[in-house]
Design a protein that fits this description.
Elements lengths: L8 E7 L6 E5 L6 E3 L2 H14 L3 E6 L5 E7 L13
Parallel strand pairs: 1-4
Antiparallel strand pairs: 1-2, 2-3, 4-5
């Protein structure tokens, strides 16, 4: 049996078609979240990716072409990090 790596989720940031803004959707779902700016949408996608345990964030332009892709690492477990007295 082959050892296969778990495929990462992908969050897609793209210009909204029906209004002046940006949307974020997790691939293979229909639930888009709307934002006024690309920066807000990208920050949201990165935060969701980190909370999910790591994922890819892909930014697309108006034509659906990929402009950038980044891999977001999992959010660190706050309880696992020692704190200074």
């Amino acid at each position: 049996m082959r050892n296969e790596k778990k495929r990462s989720s992908v969050y897609v940031v793209y210009p909204a078609a029906l209004f002046d803004g940006w949307e974020v959707v997790k691939e293979h779902t229909d639930n888009a979240v709307s934002f006024n700016t690309r920066e807000e949408a990208t920050a949201y996608a990165r935060a969701r990716a980190a909370m999910e345990g790591g994922a890819l964030v892909k930014v697309e332009n108006w034509f659906g072409d990929t402009e950038s892709v980044c891999e977001v690492a999992p959010q660190a477990d706050r309880e696992a990090v020692p704190t200074a007295p």
